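User: I'm putting together notes for a lab meeting next week and I want to include a structural view of one of the chains we've been expressing. I don't have a solved structure, so I'd like a prediction I can at least talk through. The sequence is below, exactly as it appears in our construct file.
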Amino acid sequence: MSDEEVGRRHAENPQEQKHPEPHEHQEQQKERRPLKTEDRKGRPGYGVLLSVVFLVPVLKLAWTLGGGGQAGSALLAMEPANWPDVLIGILLNDALLAALTAVVTSRVTYGYFAARGGAQLHAGTPLHRTLATAALVPVTFALLVGAFHGLGWGLVTGLVSYALRLGVVAEYRTGSRTLGGRRASRRPSDWRGHAIEATRWTALLLAVFALPLTALAGALDGRSWSAVLACDVNTGHGSERSRVVELGRKGTGVVGWDIEGSEVVDGVNCGESGDDVVRDPWWRR
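Assistant: Thanks for the context. Below is the predicted structure for the 285-residue chain, given as structure tokens.
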């Protein structure tokens, strides 16, 4: 049978066309699928971020209010809708923690999605478009941090976030990391390789050491995450003026934590106390 007849027969009967062998199909899938071993390398960053979101607010409540029982009473009084206020308050009161959280979140999410197929999907994208896309999240974080903590903190947050994202781009563009997410085994031989290594180690140090230590210090510094007010409180023996940590709003007053009485109270006629320190930091106890 001639080549023309074979081609004609395949065109008439697509079912007879050759399919890839099973082992070839597995190799193709392996190239397309990011390696799980590389995904695991990002887990310390994910774990730290989850700890900041869930563990640090609980530690903040427990230490600031004086114990686990007090923290539980405060959480119940706040109601679930107000629970995120603790984390938001911590980030608003601590510029360094807000900046580190933004930087680590920017780097971890970018590296994760690149390893999960983003790098392969955009392998043919022009470099200038990739650089512009990589700047979107850093610029957003820079504006957020700058709005609450000042222009300087915003600029630092945006520049560091973008620099670490450029390190990820450079890894894939130079072949230091394959499109599947696996790091090449070769050692850096020029300034670009050393710069890539520097950004990778910087991201690791910020995620594993700087962020958790700063978050822990913020949780145990004894300062309130919310406004500390001077309110009229009915203690059962008449009304008296007390310092109260605001937990939520109720009518014309607030639901708060009486710092001296160590209990949840309703406060009225409230005003700023001018001091957000509730107790001494953990390291001065």
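A couple of points you could mention at the meeting. DSSP finds eleven helices and four strands in the chain. Residues 191-219 form the longest helix (29 residues).

User: Perfect, that's what I needed.
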